[in-house]
Design a protein that fits this description.
19% of the residues lie in helices and 53% in strands. By secondary structure, the chain is of the alpha+beta class. The longest helix is centred in the N-terminal third of the chain and has 28 residues, at 2-29.
Length: 203
């Protein structure tokens, strides 16, 4: 009986040591890298029937978690109050557009100063690159998104170039959308908004 107890304790001890060793290995594999306002930039583009506008947004903060060389999860916080327009040269018209985009008709930046992208998983994409699955939160509303990204984990830097297109009406941005207003003629604004998210993190 004593021998059986000793043998059982030896097995349990070995299992505990193996579990602890695996936990240590897992802890050393996962690496987290921080983003800040100097990491990169988000470029936005919106279209209407008669043309388009584009501009930039600043990255406020965030993090990326890697398992060895593979991105597994992360979060990107975008400063919506930093929204600007780069294609309108007339200062008065530029200011008018930005004021409107920050208003309740669009992104309501005073009430909702930040948008977030929560990365839940990353898969290899057909034709190369990566397919990112996550959640996009704008104006306090969250919906799942899938978008393409080129992720390079280099010796000194991690570089990410991604392209995300979302339907603004899902985030309660309905201004001049043909889905909700059918008498706009050629004064409508397309529902799709495009974001190019590009940044570089020093290791």
């Amino acid at each position: 009986m004593v021998m059986k107890v000793i043998k059982l304790m030896s097995i349990l001890s070995a299992l505990m040591m193996a579990f602890t060793a695996n936990a240590v290995v897992s802890a050393t594999i996962l690496q987290q890298f921080k983003l800040d306002k100097n990491s990169g930039v988000v470029t936005w583009k919106g279209r209407k029937f008669t043309g388009e506008h584009q501009g930039t947004l600043k990255i406020k903060s965030g993090n990326l978690v890697f398992d060895k060389q593979t991105l597994v999860q992360g979060k990107i916080v975008i400063d919506m109050a930093s929204l600007n327009c780069t294609d309108i040269k007339d200062p008065e018209y530029n200011t008018k557009l930005i004021r409107h985009l920050k208003s309740e008709d669009f992104f309501s930046t005073q009430k909702h100063p930040y948008a977030t992208i929560d990365i839940k998983s990353v898969l290899p994409a057909k034709g190369g690159g990566h397919e990112v699955h996550g959640n996009l939160t704008i104006k306090g509303i969250t919906h799942p998104v899938i978008f393409k990204a080129d992720i390079k984990n280099e010796k000194k830097y991690i570089k990410v170039a991604s392209n995300l297109t979302f339907d603004r009406t899902k985030w309660d941005i309905r201004y001049k959308s043909k889905k909700f207003f059918n008498s706009l003629g050629d004064k409508f604004i397309y529902d799709e908004v495009n974001l190019n998210i590009n940044f570089k993190i020093k290791k």
